[in-house]
Amino acid sequence: MSESRSERIPAAERREQILDAAARVFGERGYAGTTTDQVAQAAGISQPYVVRMFGSKEKLFCELLLRARDSLETRLRAALARPEVKALDNQGLKRFLGRAYVDLVGEGDIVLPLAQGFLLGHDPVIGRYAREGFLDIYRLLRDEAGLSPEEVRDFLAGGMLLNTLLTLQMTGLYESDETARELLACAFGEKLDLVVAPTKAAP
Amino acid sequence: MSESRSERIPAAERREQILDAAARVFGERGYAGTTTDQVAQAAGISQPYVVRMFGSKEKLFCELLLRARDSLETRLRAALARPEVKALDNQGLKRFLGRAYVDLVGEGDIVLPLAQGFLLGHDPVIGRYAREGFLDIYRLLRDEAGLSPEEVRDFLAGGMLLNTLLTLQMTGLYESDETARELLACAFGEKLDLVVAPTKAAP
DNA sequence: AAGAGTGGTAATTGAATGATTACAAGCCGA
DNA sequence: TCGGCTTGTAATCATTCAATTACCACTCTT
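Structure tokens for the assembled complex are given below, as produced in the milestone run.
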């Protein structure tokens, strides 16, 4: 994307670049399906640097999981703190939080690694991270948002559907397939254009 | 599991054995995370035989996707054909079909490869298969079950949550984690024991 | 200006893996 | 019983990939 600087960049900043690139690549291709070299190329650096910065591919992915969970929790708490939520019943709150989730998804591929991690239950270390993250979100919605277990379940279910549609790249069929268009419109609602026309931000 | 026969087995039967084994392994570990040798060992044969029987790992996985989709469609149509569905409104029908889905999931790992395939949208050939399968199910629910787009969406969302909980292996936390127990009970309802105590069928 | 710390890569390595080849053993019909 | 077809494997190959090593270049401090 950007090869603006070919100079030396402080490690902390480089680390963020790598995490951003890794979130994109892992989010699209999954853990096992991604090579550290793909991450390196996406970040514009060499493969050994990626490995040395994080120790291993596994540690890099775990870092992404924590980062995604934190982003999501931060975003949900921010939504809960807004004044207009006080006027909402639980049904309305669920919708409001749902829109906050779509916003987060639309801003980049921050949360897709989380969705990929949810398929790795068999992995002794990543699986544990992923389960814990999932339960963290569950508790946040139940305890801080005050939703009932059934309401949390429905919220999470909706989120899983959105994740699935994204990782399936169903959005690529929006133009050409009538059924896909109907499904996407129904699933993403008013936030559809956030995801069907990925922000091609140009200078 | 069964090493009953060490003799020669007709290709058609062997093919089914391999597909069953592959569904289990791919369903648990994902496409990229599974080796053809793991499939071979699970089926009790040698790795080259797996490859030769299906041509390639990719073709084997595509076969699994078709098989899973067909199983699901067959099961849903069978549920729709039962007499008691006529007395149900759409809300009740959704629940009824949901129970049929959980039944199918509980009977084995037939559908988990489908869930894994949904993460492979980036793959030029598998991605296409997976998207088509997904839209097939959508149309079945809309046109044959007569659900509205929103109702189909909610049904699919629920299914995606169940898939996620299974591939996350959240069921393994049922005994030890209070939150996981609550979530699982809420998501699987009366069918919980189908999935939390995997059928250890013994002779 | 010496040298130490930091940012970065080229080259390589060892293991894993999908696929191929070549071959063996059982079965069946003529 | 001979010869061909089917079922199956051992051995191997070519790649790919995560990780390591060894090195270079720049910058700041003193």
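Chain A touches chain B through 46 residues (CB under 8 Å). Confidence is low (pLDDT under 50) at residues 1-5 of chain A. Further analysis is deferred to the final report.
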